[in-house]
Amino acid sequence: MFLQSPKTFRAILAPSSLIFSSMATLSAESVVWPTGPGANSHAYEVIHVPEGITWPNAEAQAIARGGHLASISSLAENNFVHGLIKDRPELWTAPDHVNNIIGPWLGGFQTSLNVFAWVDGSAFQYSNWAPGEPNNVNGTEARIHFLGQNALRASTWNDYPPTPDGALQPLPKAYIVERQLPAGDYAIWRPEDGGNGHTYVVVHAPAGIDWPAAEADAIARGGHLASVNSSTENAFLYSLAGTNLALWTGPDTHPKQLGPWLGGYESGPNIYRWTDGSPSVFQNWAPGEPNNALGDESRIHFYGQNGMPGAQWNDYPPSPVGPVQPKLLSYIVEFTQFPSDPVFELKTFPLSITWNSVNGCKIVLAGSASGRTYLLQQTSDFLHWEDLEQKVSVGVAISWQTPPQPSNRFFRVALLP
Prior knowledge:
Structural class: mainly beta
Distance between the termini: 17 Å
Mean pLDDT: 82
Helix content: under 10%
Radius of gyration: 23 Å
Largest sheet: 12 strands, mixed
Shape: globular
Oligomer: single chain
Order of helices and strands: EEEHEHEEEEEEEHEHEEEEEEEEEEE
C-alpha cells in the first residue's frame, strides 16, 4: 500500500488493486528493459539498504518481491543494469584502504572454484570481472557484486563473501532485483531508453471490463488509457502485457488473442483519435482491420493472431457482450508523470497515517496477523525503495514513527514470508 506524506490521502477503489499484498505481488515502479539489443522485457528494481545487507538476505528479499537477484547475460544487459546505479553514490560503500568501493549485489554464486552460476538458472555466458578477479581471497568469496576501483562506480564485478565481516569487507548497501513484470506494476519508459518519460501500468480486470469503465478508471487514477505514437512505444507497451496470458481473452476458437484496451476511439468513419489528445501519427492495425465488423467497433485494443497474443491492433465494441465478443480482461493506463494519489484497497489492510512538521509521520497498520513480519519502506520517486523497519505482529495494530521528511515521500508496507 502506498501512502503519501503530508498531503491529503484519497483511496481509489479500482477493478484490480494490487498495491498491498505479500511482497511477491507488491506493486512498485520498476524499470523495464524493453528495447535495444538483447532486451528481455524484464523489470529491475534497485533496493537501498543503508545499514548493509548480506547476499543470502538480499536473495531472500528478491524472492519475496517475486524475482531473484539480477543475472547478467550480455554486455548490453550489464550496461543497462549498471546505468541504474552508476549515478547513485548512496548505493556504494566508502573507499577502502586500496580505494575500492563496493556496489550492489548481483545473483551470481560460485559452484566450484572460479565457476559461477546465476540464481535464476540462466546460463552464465557473460562476465565482466574487474582486473585480477575472481580471486577467492581466503577461500570464502563465492558471490558477485559490482565493484568500483579507484573510487569510481564501475560496471565491473568482484567475487565477495556471502556474509562479509563488515570491517575489512563492508556489507554492500544495495541489491538489484530482476523479475518478469506482472500486472499492477508501474513502469517508466525512460528517455535514456528512447522513451517519453511517461509511466504506465497494466490493470488486470479478471471479471472483464468495457472501454468506458476502463477509461473512467484511468482518469480517476490521474491518467488516460494509453496512446501509442510510435512503433517503439507500441513495442514497449506490448512488452508489459504480451507474455501474461491472464491479461488476454477471446472466443472459444481463439482463446488468447484479445488483449488490453488502449486509448484509441473512432471519431469518424475509420478516423481514430487518442483520449489524451495526442496526435494520431502511428497505426499498427492487424491485416484487414479496422473493419467495423458488427457495426459498433469503435475502440482499439491489442490483438493477436491464431488465438495467441500479438502487438497489432483491432477495432472492437466499447461495451462488448456475449461469447463471440467477450469483455476484455485488462487495460493499460498512461501517466505523463507518476500519479500524485496512491491507489490501494482499503478493505483488505486498513492503513492510516498522520503527519506534522515536528513529529513526522505515524503509520498504523490495523488487523495484522500474529507472528507475521511486516516491513515499512519509503520512496520519493517510486523507483528506489528504502527499507525502514521490520516489526513482528503480536496480533494487534502495528505502528511506525518516522522523522520529519520532505513532502514528496511515499510509504508502503509489505508482508514478508
